[in-house]
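Entry type: protein chain
Record version: 2
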Amino acid sequence: MLTDPDIAILLTGILVGCASALLGPFLILRQNAMLSDAISHAIVFGIMLTWLLTGLVSGPVQILGAGLSGVLCVWLIEALTRTGRIKEDAAIGLVFPALFAAGVLMLNVFARNVHIDVHTVLLGEIGFVWLDTVAVAGIEMPNAVLWMGAVFLVNLVFVMLFWKELKLGTFDPTLAAAFGLHPRLLFYGLLLLTSITAVAAFDAVGAILFIAFIIVPPATAYLLTDRLAWMVGLGMLTSVASVFAGYALAVAWDVSISGMMALMTGAFLMAAITFGPRYGLVPRAWRYRADRERNDVRALMVHLHTHESGSDRAEENVSDALITHLNWPEIRAKTVMRRAVNSGLVLHDGGVLELTDQGRDMARTLLEPWRR
């Protein structure tokens, strides 16, 4: 069953997406999202160095060695940043290309005949994961599913065990340090797991899809909720939805599966940017319009109340005055008057605009702070 191509591909994508989405929110909230990009390239250096030292191209030693190279990448970035001469973004731009170039150079010099390919590391080929299998307890399963399942469980246990520490260290590292929670140690643990997840994912889906999963779904969730637990859950849900939608479209259009899955994470992000209930462009436009309409009605109430008892009442409290004195376009003036009349705030029989008791109370409430 697990060796069925459809199941193997979908399960691998889901495990990579969920394992990444468990860690991604903490990187997003710490404003360290681009470190995942740096790590995913720096692991090439770790892969090659581990092979030179041990001769292994896969297995736990290779994963650990490559994962430590990701931590080395971050340590070098922070070391350069602490000098005060280089900003963090410039340090990232210096360190990870250097490590990536060193890894590619070692690959071309020492490992021409070894089955380690830069193209595979970056892009992967999730469509072939069902061909590389291993027997576990008599059950045949893809290697990618086995390794990504193990990484997902490790990430899940880490996040669950250190949830409070990660949460406090993310939002207030100074307070976390005061409580003796060692936020820097936890941060490096988080980065080590990020590196290990990248290494485990690169052979199946490549670094590009890993970067998409660890950044885009958590960013999508960030636009939908302000609660960390919901952010993690929505990030995982977005990853799963991207896997299913991406695979279905890739099969239908005969295009890259990994590429389409990555594209779908972007599609969900764009949907959140456009329609998200709190930060979406459309809801924000509707809220802006509603606020403007309310403020227009309030301005009308204050205007009418100000001139209600004056000698210029017949000149000011008429529809033409809203156009000439308030500089409102005619269509806006008519819309505001209609809304005020429908709300029971104003009476209009074609002549002078009359405030109702409700409209007068609103005007007095609005003017009260200015009369103190």
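Comment: The beta strands are 133-136, 139-142, 346-348, 353-355.
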